Amino acid sequence: MIDVSAVRRLSRGALATLLIAAGLSAFSVSAGTLDEIKARGMMNIATEDDFHPFEFIQDGTPTGYDTELVKLITANAPFKLHQDTIPWAGILPGVTTGKYDMAVSAVLVTDARKKTLQFASPIAESTTYYLTKTGGTAIKSTTDLNGKAIGVEAGSAMEKQLQALDAKLKAAGGAGVKQIVEYQGYPEAYQDLALGRLDAVVNTQINLEALIKEKPGVFAMGQPIAEPVYIAWAAAKGNDSLIAYINSLLLAARKDGKMYELQKKWLGASFESMPETIQ
Amino acid sequence: MTGYDVYSIFKGALSTISLSLASIALGVPFGLGCALARWYRIPVLSPLVISYVSVVRATPAVTLALLIYFALPDVGLSLDAVSAAILTLTLSTGAFNTEIWRGALMAFPRDQLDSAAAFGMSRAQSLRLVVLPQVFHAALPALVNEMTLQVKSTPAVAVIGIVEITRAAMRVGARTYDPLPPFALALVLYSLIVSAFVIAQRTIERRREIAGRPA
Amino acid sequence: MSGFAIVWQNRQEMLSGFANTVTLSALSLIFSLVLGAMLSMALNGRAVFPRRLAALYVDAMRCVPFLLFAYFIYFGLPAIGLRMDNWISGLIALILYNIAYMAELLRASWRSLPADTIEAGHAFGFHGLGLFLRIILPPVALAAVPMIGNQTIQIIKDSAFLTIIAVAELTHAATSIQTTYFVPFVSFITAIALYWMLCMVIETGVAFAGRLAEARR
Predict the structure, then answer these.
(1) In this complex, do C64 and B63 lie within 8 Å of one another by their Cβ atoms?
(2) pTM of the prediction?
(3) Cα–Cα–Cα angle for A92, A50, A47, nearest 5°?
(4) How many angstroms separate the CA atoms of A162 and A180, rounded?
(5) Is the confidence at residue B178, as pLDDT, over 70?
(6) Nearest residue on chain B to C161, judged by CA atoms?
(7) What's the DSSP call for residue A45?
(8) Residue B209 carries which DSSP code?
(9) Sign of dihedral through CA atoms C114, C120, C122, C126?
C-alpha cells in the first residue's frame, strides 16, 4: 500500500503555494458602488499605456489629459486612486466584469457601448479622421480610401466607424476598403503607416494632431470619416451612484475652468459647449 | 534613445529576471507535486493533472496570460497584473516540469521503495530520503533546459501590460518612432540572461560526463 | 450563457484566425524543416567555417525570445529595404527562428545514427548530397519525429505572439471579439480549445509515425 495522505499533503502544498501567490493580491470582484469604494478607501481605475495625448507614460509614470484630470478632481475625494496601466484590449472588459470601477480612458461614446456601460460627463469632443503619409499620397478625400489598407485599434469605436465607412463606400458603388488591419495599440499602426505597409490610419482628430505635432513632416491629416462624438469615462451599467459623484466633480472642474485649462494644455483646444451628462 | 530610455530597458530586464525566478521557484515544486500525484495514481488528482498538462502544454503563453488576466474576472477571480503574470508563467512551466519529473520518476526502480519499507522507513521518509534525491539528479538537466525556455516565454506577459524587457523596448520605440535601437539593446540583454542558463546547463552536462566516465 | 452565442455569431472571424494559425504553422514547419536539414548538414559537416557559422546561428536563436525576434524582423526588414506585409513578416520570423531548432534536433538525431550505416552507404557508392538524402536523412528524420512534433507544437504556440504585429491569427481573433463584445472568458476558452485540438492532432500523428517506424524496422 502507498501512503497516499503524505503525497496528497505535498501536492496540496504545491497547489496552495500557487493559489496563495495568486490569491494574496486578488481583491473581491463587484461593480464598486460609491459606498463600496468609500468603504475600501480606493477606487480602481484603468488607463491605457499609449494613447497620446489622453494617456501615456513619461519617464516611467503615467501622465496625459485623463491622468491629470482624474488626479485633479479626486484630490479631495474620500478615497485614493489605484491606477492600472494596461493595453486597450483589457480596459472595457475589465470594467464590465468589475475588475475596475471606472475606465479613466478616452472612451468614445457610442450607442452600442451604452448598452453595457454607463458614461460620466463628457471630457472632450472629437471627430475621427484618417491620417496619411506626407507627400505623393493618392488619397485626397474619403472616397480615395477605396481599395486601400487602413489601420485601426482592435475593438475601438474608430474601428466601428471605419467599418461603417467601408459599408458606405461600397453602397456608393466603390470597391470598399481593401483591408482593415487591427492593431493592439496605435504605435505599431503609425509605424506601419510610416513604413508604407498601410495607406492610412484612422483615429480621433485630437490624437492625430498630437502625433503630427510630435513628428512633423512625416504624417498628414486627412478628412473626417464620421460625425463628431463625445469622449467620456465609463463605469459598469447601473453604477449610478459612482457616475453621479464623478459627474459632480467633473462639472465643478468645468465651472472653475480647470478642466478647460487641462484641455488647452493637452488637447490644444477647449470644449465649452458639451452637454452635462450622457444619457 | 535618452539615458532614461536605456535605464527603463534595464529596469525591464530586472522585471524579466524576477518574473522568471518567481515562476521557476513556484513551477518546479508544483510540477513535482503534479508528477507525484500521477506516480502514486491518486484518484481525482491524477486525471486532473493529465488534463492540466495536456491543455496547458498546447496553450500559447500569450493566450493563457490573456485568459487569466482579462477573462478570469468574468468568473469572479480578479488578479493584479503581476500576480496574473506569475500565475501564467508558473502554470505554463509547471506543465512541462510535471512531464520532466514524471519521466524521472518512471525511470526510478520501484523495488527500492520495498527495501526502504523493509528498513522501517515511513512513506514520507522514503520519499524524502530515497526517491527525491535520485529523481532530482536525473531530472536536473531537463529542468534547467526548461528554465531556459521559460525565460524566453516571459515576453508573453507584455500583452497584459507588464513592463518587462520587450514592453519597455516597445514603449521607447513607440515614443521615438525609431524601434531598432531599443530592440537591439533588448536582444543583447535577453541573450545575456539566457546564456547564463545555457552555461549552467552545459556545466551540469559536462560534470555528468566526467562523473560518468569509467575510472 | 450569452457569451457562447456571441462567439458563435462571430465564428467566421474565429475560424479564419484558426485557419491563419494552421497555415502559418504548416508553412513554417515545412520550410524550417527543409532549411534546417540543410543547416544540420553544415553542423555535422567537416568544413570548419560553415560549421562555426551554423553553430553561431543556432546559438543566437536559442538565446532570443521569439516575440522580440519577430519584432526585429518586422521593423528590421524595412530598414534594409525589404517591405513585406505583417503576415509575410510573421511567417519569415517563424521560419528563420525555427530553422535553428530543427537543425539542432536533426543534428542530435544524426549523431545517434550508427557509423556503419554511413560506411555502408559509402560502400554502395553514395557520396555528398546523395548520401545525405538517400542514406542519412530517412532514418534521422524518422527517429526525430517525436522531437519534430514537439517543435511543431512550439511553432503553433509561438505564432500566437504574432497578434502583436497585427497578424490575424487565432489569439488575435479571440482578442478582437472580446474587446468588441466584452466576452473575454468564452473568447479565450474557445481559442484555447482550438489550440488544444490542433496539438492533439499533431500528437496523434506523431504516435502514428512512431508505429510506422516500428513496422519499418
Answers:
(1) no
(2) 0.85
(3) 40
(4) 8
(5) yes
(6) B62
(7) E
(8) H
(9) negative
